[in-house]
Amino acid sequence: MIDTIIFDLGGVLLNWNPRNLYTKIFEGNEEKINWFLNEICTSEWNSMQDSGLRTMKEATELKVAEFPEHEALIRLYYDRWEDMFDGSIEDSVKILEQLKKQNTHRLFALTNWNVENFDYAENTFPFLVNFQDILVSGQEKTMKPDPKIFEIAIERFKINPEKTIFIDDKLENVEAFEKFGVKGIHFQSPKQLEESLKELNIF
Hints:
Layout lengths: L3 E4 L6 E3 L1 H8 L4 H11 L2 H8 L5 H11 L4 H9 L5 E4 L1 H13 L3 E6 L6 H7 L8 E4 H4 L6 H11 L6 E5 L2 H8 L4 E4 L3 H10 L4
Parallel strand pairs: 1-4, 1-6, 4-5, 6-7
Antiparallel strand pairs: 2-3
Helix pairs in contact: 1-2, 4-5
């Protein structure tokens, strides 16, 4: 009997992507967008901030020192970080709110997120109040798919993995948590998520 559901945030409930900002900066030039995000401010670079191992200021200065000719573009990454959002994934939020209304499962979130700017999410997206608790990677100094963060989640949320569903848009994160015994759902769309939950008799 499933009694707990854990959601990822970005890519499942929130539309967050650095491309949303740099599409504006580069006026839709895909070649320039891909160059910047694959060669300059990469996902690996951003992950260090999400893991809490480096501040945004430290990361920015290191990257500016590495690519001084692109200083202005680099500083925009965190100066205009809020422009990387394109709202919430509304149909996913409806699923979350339906689960909350049913009041039959404990609801938590586990997110890879920089603790320095997580307050933006809390202040901007009211649906986050549906969660009993949110575990933020930057606060814990580790991130998905590192097994340590799943161990923290199990302890902090006081869950029985075999009675828990974990929903994430990154397959490596789902597979990593499944090793602890949870039932993973690799999120691809709200419709697919709803169908998966129905198959598990959640709805």
